[in-house]
Amino acid sequence: MPVDWKHKAREFSIKTCKPMRDYVLVRCDKVKAKTEGGLYIPEIAMGKASTGTVIKVGLPSINELSGIEIPIPLEVGDRIIFSKFSGQEILFKEDDYDYKLVPSKVIMGFDEEHRKKVEK
């Protein structure tokens, strides 16, 4: 009998989940089901979120040739943009948000303005 991994993931807790290697745990933004004009978008047409908030950051990767650590230039709380179809979706038992474990190499950017507001 096949294992339902989405159901199994509910056994994990955000508090105890630690990303490995150069992965980042991201809480995905909710996709809006209604346009600014008031039209409702069917679920099949909404697509997946490609923005979110960094919850946890994994370890730096290591360059295989030089052995030098390559740090992940993100901090907890950063707002990021990542490749829509990358990463592993995870559901935690604490809440109903969508989470993803995303490799740092598919993160295309982060919001510097948001980071400055948080630092103040």
What does this protein look like?
The chain is globular and about 55 Å long. The protein has a six-stranded antiparallel sheet with strand order 6-7-1-2-5-8. A two-stranded antiparallel ribbon has the order 3-4. It is of the alpha+beta class. It has one domain: GroES chaperonin (10 Kd Chaperonin, Protein Cpn10, Chain O). It is built from three helices and eight strands; from the N terminus they run H-E-H-E-E-E-E-E-E-E-H. The chain has helices spanning 5-9, 43-46, 112-119; strands at 23-28, 51-57, 61-62, 69-70, 79-82, 88-90, 99-103, 107-110.
Please tell me what the overall shape is.
globular
Q: What is the helix fraction of residues, given as a range?
A: 10-25%
**CATH homolog superfamily:** GroES chaperonin
Round the Cα radius of gyration to an integer and report it: 16 Å
Strand arrangement, largest sheet?
Answer: 6-7-1-2-5-8
Number of strands: 8
Distance between the termini: 53 Å
CATH architecture: Roll
Summarize the main sheet.
6 strands, antiparallel
CATH topology: 10 Kd Chaperonin, Protein Cpn10, Chain O
Please, how many helices?
3
The SSE order reads HEHEEEEEEEH
What class, by secondary structure content? Answer: alpha+beta
Which parts are unreliable, with pLDDT below 50 for 5 consecutive residues or more? none
Beta-strand content bin:
25-35%
Question: Any idea of the CATH class?
Answer: Mainly Beta
Oligomer: single chain
How many structural domains does the protein architecture include?
Answer: 1
Average pLDDT, to the nearest integer? 80
